[in-house]
């Protein structure tokens, strides 16, 4: 089954950060993780920390309807989120 992932990057103007995010997601998918699982967001966040973004945060969310339609949402912050302040 396919899943759609919608990503909102708060710090989108930092191209190096966005590239690191793309690479961390690609690594997780190459290793066989399903894109619609929280483990992918957790792994991507850990890789961002390892790549020099220690305050990076990824919020993973899905409503019941989104689970049924196989859609996942990430909100990504380079310097932490308001939720983690």
Topology (elements, then pairings):
Elements: E1 4-9, H1 15-30, H2 38-50, E2 57-61, H3 64-69, E3 71-77
Parallel strand pairs: 1-3
Antiparallel strand pairs: 2-3
Helix pairs in contact: 1-2
Strand order, sheet with most strands:
1-3-2
Binned, the helix content reads 40-55%
Average pLDDT reading: 85
Distance between the termini: 36 Å
What coarse outline follows from CA principal-axis ratios?
globular
How much of the sequence lies in strands comes to 15-25%
How many whole angstroms does the radius of gyration measure?
12 Å
SS-based class = alpha+beta
Largest beta sheet, briefly? 3 strands, mixed
H-E string: EHHEHE
Number of helical segments?
3
Q: Tally the beta strands.
A: 3
Provide the low-confidence segments as ranges. Answer: none
Report a brief summary of the structure.
The chain has 85 residues and is an alpha+beta fold.
Could you describe the 3D structure shown?
The chain has helices at 15-30, 38-50, 64-69, and strands spanning 4-9, 57-61, 71-77. With 85 residues, it is of the alpha+beta class. Strands 1-3-2 form a three-stranded mixed beta sheet. Helix 1 (15-30) crosses helix 2 (38-50). The longest helix is centred in the first third of the chain and has 16 residues, at 15-30. The radius of gyration is 12 Å and the shape is globular. It starts with a strand and ends in an 8-residue tail after the last strand.
